[in-house]
Amino acid sequence: MTLDDLIFSVMMVPAPEISEAEAAAFARAHWGIDGTAKLLTGERDRNFRLRASDGREFVLKFANAAEDQAVADMQIAALAQVATREPALQVPRMVPLPNGAMEALHGAIRVRLLSYVPGIPLRETTRSAAQRTACGVALARLGIALDGFTHPASATPLIWDLAHTLRLREVLDAVPDADAQTRIAAILNDFETDIAPVLPSLRRQVLYNDMNTGNVLIDPDNHEIVAGIIDFGDLVTTALAIDVAVGATSQIDGVATIPADIGDFVRGFHATRPLLADEIAVLPLLIACRLAMSLVLQAWHRRSHPDNPHYRPITVAELHRRLAMIDAVRGPETFAAIRHAGS
Fold first, then answer.
1. pLDDT above 70: residue 2
2. Which long-range contacts (CB under 8 A, 24 or more apart) does 222-226 make?
3. Considering 69, 83, 111, 221, which has the largest number of Cβ atoms within 10 A of its Cβ?
4. Same domain for 141 and 225?
């Protein structure tokens, strides 16, 4: 399997071209909901915020043509399990068609309707220790709700799963700086030496794997409260420590505050779902690998698809900031903060 095979369904196929008027008409014809549609951002799918005339709100999702039907079925089933096992956790709920089906067809495109989860994206809020701890608690609760969930599609390879970190070597030359390439290559070498041998022995299950600053929603009236978690497109069977590392990365508010930022998040997670010693030990390097993965795949995407606006170009200043973050994550202060939070 080549890297393109892993990336194909994630980045390479553009979202379907659907207008807002077309989306509203489709919702009216199939779900009987009269309203207006506003285009939302999305990496793969064409998503719309649907506001019904009676005030209800939904998300109408026109799936990417490369989406595997089994992967879509897994996401639907996972959302149903979370709704049953953790009903207080605000995640999208599937809205069935009048006949009970969960999807409609727009030509060859599969279409789903989900409840709209209100809130402010994490990246637009006032960050705090209490908020970071709350995010850790929320991710732990989500993992507990998914514990025991099984689906054949959960083994589908996903490039955003840190288990595939070493595949970044194939596109490392997309990073626009030779020194940065060398430094990231060293991170990949460390993953091969220190993480790859122990990864199979770590706890595994189907996990969310995408707690980023756009997918975590915060209460607009109290920025210390997590209002919800959206976008289950990166569900995959992977190591629990990987899910924690992805979530911890989203909490970084600045290079100088990295130990506290990550420590607060891990503290909340650990208090809700205790981490094991071997999981705590690999977190700093896994977080560094997530930062490196985001940088490499963004650079690769910009080189391969310069007209696609989903990923912005990487400036020299941004490149240096990201590399400084990677260095700080692996520093002794961050490891000490993680160990203390997990004790």
1. no
2. 223/120, 223/125, 223/126, 223/127, 223/128, 223/131, 224/128, 224/130, 224/131, 224/134, 225/134, 226/131, 226/134, 226/135, 226/137, 226/138
3. 111
4. yes
For the segment 276-311, what is each residue's pLDDT rounded down to a tens digit?
Answer: 999 999 999 999 999 999 999 999 888 877 776 667
Burial of residue 210 (CB within 10 Å: 0-12, 13-18, 19+) is: buried
* Amino acid found at 82: V
Do 111 and 63 lie in a common domain?
A: yes
Amino acid at 336: A
Residue type, 81: Q
Coil, strand or helix at 301? helix
Determine the residue type at 240: L
Q: Is 230 exposed, middle or buried (0-12, 13-18, 19+ CB in 10 A)?
A: buried
Unique residue bearing structure tokens 């896994």: 286
> Residue 227 and residue 121: Cα distance in Å, rounded?
10
